Amino acid sequence: MVNNHKVTTIPVKQPEPKFPVMEIFGPTIQGEGALIGMPTHFVRLGGCTYRCAWCIAENSRVLMSDWTTKPIQEVKVGDFVLGMKQQISDRRYLIPTEVLEVHDNGIKDTVSVTTETNQLICTEDHLIHNLKHKPKWDKAKLLANGGKIKSVPLGTRNAQWRRGWLAGYLKGDGCFHKYKDRWWRVKVTSIDDLLLDTAKSYAEELGVALRSIVHNAGKNAYKSDNKIKGLECTQNDEVLKLKLQLYTAKDTNDPDTNYSAGWLAGIFDAEGTLDKTAVRITQLKEDVRADIVTFASSLGFEVNEQKRCIILTPSVKFYSQCRPILQRKIPLQIGLRCMPSELVKSVTPNDDCSHVYDLTTACGSYTAEGILVHNCDTMFAVDPQQVKEGRVMMTPSEILSALEDLGPNAVQWVTISGGDPMMHKHLNVLVDELRDACWNVAIETQGAILHDNGLHCDHLTISPKPPSSGMKTDMEVLTQYIQAADSEQIADSFCVKIVVFDEEDLRWANNIACKMQLEELYLQVGTQQEELSLTGYRNQLLEDYNWLVNEVLIDEAPRAVYKYPKLQDMHSLILLPQMHALVWHNERGK
Asked: Taking the CB of residue 293, how many other CB atoms lie within 10 A of it?
């Protein structure tokens, strides 16, 4: 028997996709690109197409702001470490910078980056400051082809260092002498209680007790007694024991490295001064000057003997390896040129995996195992762990409801940013629902992933990452993006925007404009990750913007030798600051 009943298929309603929302905020203004100044709400999605494993192995020593070190897993949020502040026009400084986040990223494969002085164990994608050809951030695995990186030796205040420090300090602020040509004495005086306390402690480690005294240094300018605190020992046998223990190493042809570093730190704490470029140790005694030259040369310092002082460079190496005690003598900001560089000898994969960590700092970098390394500067929207912890999974209808709660009605634009929102394959569903609700939708993307899913928005900002970011742009995908946007396949209108931090970024932007045959391009000066007041930050941003305008527009060279020929001949080149940063700095939710 034939069954002629018609079978009716009931369509199954597909569940709404969910998106990792990091924040929804507004009303604010669009800070970048063709819509700059336009009132808008923001939907920031988590996740980035440049998701790489930037991690440092457990127990790697991080250089702290006081030039001591900590294993990376012991660094805490709120600590201050040493990182690089990069300003416009290639000005770079080593500064104290606050740790904003500490990331435990579990067990990962690693490589060993080895120089003459240091060895850093990190993931192969970790970014390291590479000076070969031009300064930029390169992945560790790419340094095997002859990288040149910022690298300084890290000193250790062990027993030998402490012995050397006391020997050097007594050569500067103290002396050994014979009383009545028979009994040995030792005395040291200082205006710094910290140095006296340290000297007393280190002498006790050697089994010699120094007693506290008040030394009368004669009349001062006001004809009153000039009394200075000090230490002394008057027991002949004890003084000889101390003298023997302190000065044995300097008579050898190859003094211990830690002893030498400690000795130089001690004489510096007593007699030294320093600026952003060099260490100066004032000394007239020939025997002490000879010791300074011997120890400094053994550690590889450049030595310049002057009439009244001896100058040692590079200064950053002195701070990190010798580690003087008096922090007040060390400037807070030091030109990066004072940090020595080394060639990378090898980058080799490690057989065993390592427990790895990473830091987020206010300036975007820090120093691990003496090597300058990078961290991600938008971690809350990029780092997988932070995205997982900070996200709220929301459907398009829930996002729409949250936007409607923001008001006011005068705001007609919604900007979807990240991370990179284009990494979410169902983004078209969110865009369609927002447009159906009469919102104008703008999307900001890095131009790294192009989906064929029917996505179409009102405005697309394509913002490829410049060299200063350390990222590599896929030119083929970027070309496809621009072609699709130009033909209105994915947006009614679009713009290409490049954030510029230095001259290398400008040259890269010039090449992009040539290769992509762009008729219009937005260049916006990069926002520095600095710890400044709002007024100071605005002044810095305007100074950097002034540099960008002058660099591109004011070129007295003949047309044939323009530095940026494509940019300087474009009829639609727009130079802008990041408007939201000018108004609100980097405050989240603005």
From this structure: 15
Q: How far from 446 is each of 156, 475, 478, CA to CA, in Å?
A: 44, 12, 9
For 463-477, b/e burial (b = at least 16 CB within 10 A) is bbbbbbbbbebeeeb
The secondary structure of 93-153 as a DSSP string is EEEEEEEEEEEEEEEE--EEEE-SS-EEEE-TT-EEEE-SSS-EEEEGGGGGGT-EEEB--
For residue 35, give Cα distances in angstroms to 112, 146, 199, 413, 587. 46, 43, 64, 10, 20
Quote the CA–CA distance of 421 and 444 in Å, as a whole number: 7
The two tokens of residue 165 are 């420090």
Tell me the C-alpha distance between 54 and 528, whole Å: 21
The pLDDT of residue 277 is above 50:
yes
Q: Which range scores top for mean pLDDT: 65-74, 245-254, 356-365, 466-475?
A: 65-74
Global pTM reads 0.62
Share of the chain above pLDDT 90, in %: 41
Cα dihedral 175→176→180→181 (10° resolution): -130
Q: Which of 436, 545, 456 is nearest to 499 (CA)?
A: 545
What is d(CA 257, CA 317) in angstroms, rounded to the nearest whole number? 14
Q: Work out the number of other CB atoms within 10 angstroms of the CB of residue 419.
A: 26
The string of DSSP codes covering 239-257 is HHHHHHHHHSGGGSSS--H
Tokens representing 269 are 């704490």
Query: How many CA atoms lie less than 13 Å away from 374 in the CB half-sphere?
Result: 25
For residue 266, the model assigns a pLDDT of: 95
Query: Where along the chain do its domains lie?
Result: 19-50+381-517, 56-152+339-373, 159-337
Q: How many residues does the chain have?
A: 590
Cα separation, 260 vs 215, in Å, equals 30
* Cβ-contact 65, 308 below 8 angstroms: no
The answer to whether the CB of 343 falls within 8 A of the CB of 146 is: yes
Q: Give the chain's radius of gyration (CA, Å).
A: 31
Q: Is 273 within 8 Å of 315 (Cβ atoms)?
A: no
**pLDDT of 378 higher than 80:** no
CATH node for 56-152+339-373: 2.170.16.10
Q: 376's torsion region: left (phi>0), alpha (psi -120 to 50) or beta? A: beta
Residue 245's Cβ-count burial label (10 Å; 0-12, 13-18, 19+) is: middle
Tell me the CATH number of domain 19-50+381-517, given options 3.80.30.20, 2.40.128.120, 3.20.20.70, 3.30.360.10. 3.20.20.70
Q: Are 150 and 156 in contact (CB under 8 A)?
A: no
The whole-angstrom separation of Cα 81 and Cα 94 is 10
Using 50, 70 and 90 to split pLDDT, how confident is the model at 10? very low
The CATH class, in words, for 159-337 is: alpha beta
Angle between helices 503-515 and 534-553 (to 10 degrees): 50
Q: What is the pLDDT of residues 143-201, one digit of tens each?
A: 987 889 988 889 889 999 999 999 999 999 998 988 888 889 999 999 999 999 999 99
How many Å apart are CA 391 and CA 418, to the nearest integer?
Answer: 12
